[in-house]
Amino acid sequence: MIKIAIFGAAGRMGQAVIRCCRHLSDLKIVAAVESPQCPLLGKDAGIVAGTMDIGVSISDNDREGASRAEVLIDFSFPSSSVKHAQLSAELKKPIVIGITGLSKDEHALLKKATLQTAVLWSPNMSLGVNILNAAVGQFAKKLADYDVEIVETHHSRKKDAPSGTALRLAETIAAARGVSLDNAAVYGRQGNIGERRAGQIGIHAVRAGDVVGDHTIIFATEGERLELTHRASSRDSFAMGALRAAQWIAKQSPGFYDMRDVLGLK
Q1: Is the dihedral of CA 173, 170, 149, 216 positive or negative?
Q2: pLDDT digit string (tens) for 232-257?
Q3: Which of 129, 89, 101, 110 is CA-nearest to residue 242?
């Protein structure tokens, strides 16, 4: 039995992880942590997640929650995720982080924590998206002369754009073609911009309604178009991926990992 602490327990993803964990016999939620401002402090995390009482109250004590667990799962927000990674390093507890919108400095701090513990960060925990990302690299290499555009759609409350998943897909495409994403990326288009420049990687963000997450990669040339699409209809797919990552990382030595490692895609 692997004991799990959830950071961001009252958020949409935290609740999904708590619900999904009930279906796995080798994982147990032993701590649920939120910010001091959370109005749900003291409530049973299972009830908040819309399932049965699990006997774990939501707390704002990061250190106590982490100390109870063997693996930490973080779905809070960037600055908190960094603090939790630093705490995991101090306590030598592996951590799974599913937050997007991290700055370069915050990424650097995550990697620094890997000197002491195992850190797994992925912008998307879905198994399907990570398989898609691996396949996209092959398509980008074989269709090297094709125009490529990425369109992502998320709910209206998402704060960062483009999505971390879209950026990961773009990075994979750029790497497969041997180019720098900084030089190739175009984020949306407006005005009289002229013809599309060869080699561009277009990235477009749509925000609407309650869309959990859709990503489409378009490869196009004269006479044909190939579209690869992943649609997430429930956050449970991300939650199950995070729990699978927790099962995997519990056995790993200090280092920096992502879902490709969990799935054996490297």
Answers
A1: positive
A2: 999 999 999 999 999 999 999 999 99
A3: 129
Q: Between the CA atoms of 189, 190, 195 and 198, what dihedral angle is there, to the nearest 10 degrees?
A: -20
Give the pLDDT score at 266.
Answer: 67
- ω into 162 cis (within 30 of 0): yes
User: Which two tokens mark 257?
Assistant: 């990992």
pLDDT tens column, 44-83: 999 999 998 999 999 999 999 999 999 999 999 888 999 9
Active site residue 266: no
Which residue out of 28, 107, 112, 158 is catalytically annotated?
Answer: 158
Structural domains in the chain? Answer: 2-121+235-262 (3.40.50.720), 127-232 (3.30.360.10)
Half-sphere exposure of 115 (CA within 13 A, CB side): 6
Instruction: Determine whether 28 is an active site residue.
Output: no
- Vertex 27 angle, CA 22 and 29, to 5°: 70
Active-site residue, selected from the candidate residues 93, 154, 215, 230: 154
